[in-house]
Specification:
- Helices cover about 30% and strands about 25% of the residues.
- By secondary structure, the protein is of the alpha/beta class.
- The protein folds into two domains: about 110 residues, ATPase, nucleotide binding domain (Nucleotidyltransferase, domain 5); about 90 residues, Nucleotidyltransferase, domain 5 (2-Layer Sandwich).
- The strands form two sheets. Strands 3-2-1-4-5 form a five-stranded mixed β-sheet, sandwiched between helices.
- Strand 7 and strand 8 form a beta hairpin.
- Helix 1 packs across helix 2 and helix 3 crosses helix 5.
- The longest helix is centred in the middle third of the chain and has 18 residues.
Length: about 230
């Protein structure tokens, strides 16, 4: 018996370009804003455009995957609010995915490695950081996602780095030497220009959906990292 693929809509408004995607049969249909910082004006029209392309109606969806941050404060709030509104209006469950986990998933699909240190720029001399391993086909977080500061005293992240050949991904690694010194580690390779893609968001969200890790509109919260909210990526 063939189990049909769940119909999941994916929304990512954490960066300057807002993206929306939906899988129709074996094809991932994706649309994005034509310019930067246009989430407020174009997010819901993008949802409608993707649904029309797939010949779906909003009520046909089994769930909505949302890139929950960390990322652009304004864009993040717009994406969360839009997903909450669609969920509440049509009783659609939500799946929140960390932006760091999304990038890790994209990296695992494109780079031959089993261990990635994901690092994205924050503010005030800080970076968002997460260590991810590929275990039995799944992206698994080691330790906790956290904020690292280049200006504060102290080193390390609380993550055990021994026994793995770590690869750095994400724009935070543009300051590779400073970050390696902070973490007391030497990477085997580094891809500071690599960015997450919607396939990574969809793959991670689908796994969480199939595991029953869904949220109501009230339960989906922005993942700021700095606020130390309890959050499963």
């Amino acid at each position: 018996m063939i189990i049909p693929m769940p119909r999941l809509l994916a929304i990512d408004s954490c960066a300057s370009i807002t993206r929306v995607a939906l899988r129709s049969q074996s094809r991932l249909i994706e649309h994005s804003t034509t310019g930067t910082r246009q989430a407020a004006q174009q997010l819901l029209p993008l949802v409608q455009k993707v649904l029309r392309s797939a010949k779906f109606d909003i009520v046909d969806l089994d769930g909505i995957i949302v890139a929950a941050g960390p990322g652009s404060f304004t864009g993040l709030r717009i994406g969360i609010a839009a997903a909450q509104g669609l969920s509440a209006a049509h009783s659609i469950p939500l799946i929140g995915v960390s932006s760091l986990a999304q990038l890790a998933q994209s990296a695992f699909r494109n780079i031959e490695s089993e261990a990635f240190l994901v690092c994205l720029p924050a503010r005030d001399g800080e970076v968002y950081f997460g260590a991810y391993k590929h275990i039995k086909g799944s992206v698994v977080l080691s330790g906790q996602e956290q904020v690292l500061s280049f200006t504060e005293d102290g080193s390390g992240s609380g993550v055990e780095f021994l026994g793995e050949d770590w690869v750095g991904v994400g724009q935070g690694w543009r300051k590779r030497s400073e970050l390696e010194n902070k973490l007391q580690i030497q990477l085997v390779d580094c891809f500071p220009e690599m960015q997450s893609d919607m396939q990574g968001l969809f793959d991670f969200g689908l796994e969480k959906f199939l595991n029953g890790e869904v949220l109501s509109a009230e339960e989906l919260l922005p993942h700021y990292v700095k606020e130390r909210l309890e959050y499963s990526p």
